[in-house]
Amino acid sequence: MGFSEASIDPARFLEDVEMRVGEVVDVADFPEARKDVYKLEVDFGEETLQSAAGLTDYYDHEDLLGAQVVAVVNLGTVSIAGFESECLVTGVDGGDGVVHLTTERDVEPGTRVY
């Protein structure tokens, strides 16, 4: 298989990238976007952030509402069709669609991934 990216310093990764577990508290359609995405509100305990997430082909609103997700919370804000996306909900290609990353069991919203 082989990996294509160069090795990085693990301490630097943990200093630069802040990933936290959040709970999806709102899911809305986003017809204004060029790609098929949802508008999500994700509760991280002390703060709720918005995200534009490309999960519409794989998850219904009900599947995501209340789900725990792993998100990058320190990438800054990206404006997508006037919507301020403040975090990046992570996922992987599951072969037949995107699978969002989550925890093995529920943890407190805001828990840092390390």
From TrEMBL:
It comes from the Archaea. The keyword Translocase does not apply. Residues 13-114 form the TRNA-binding domain. CDD domains: tRNA_bind_CsaA. It holds the Pfam family tRNA_bind. GO terms for molecular function: tRNA binding. Gene3D superfamilies: Nucleic acid-binding proteins. Keywords: RNA-binding, tRNA-binding. PANTHER family: TRNA-AMINOACYLATION COFACTOR ARC1 FAMILY MEMBER, TRNA-BINDING DOMAIN-CONTAINING PROTEIN. This is tRNA-binding protein. It comes from Haloarcula pellucida. The gene is csaA.
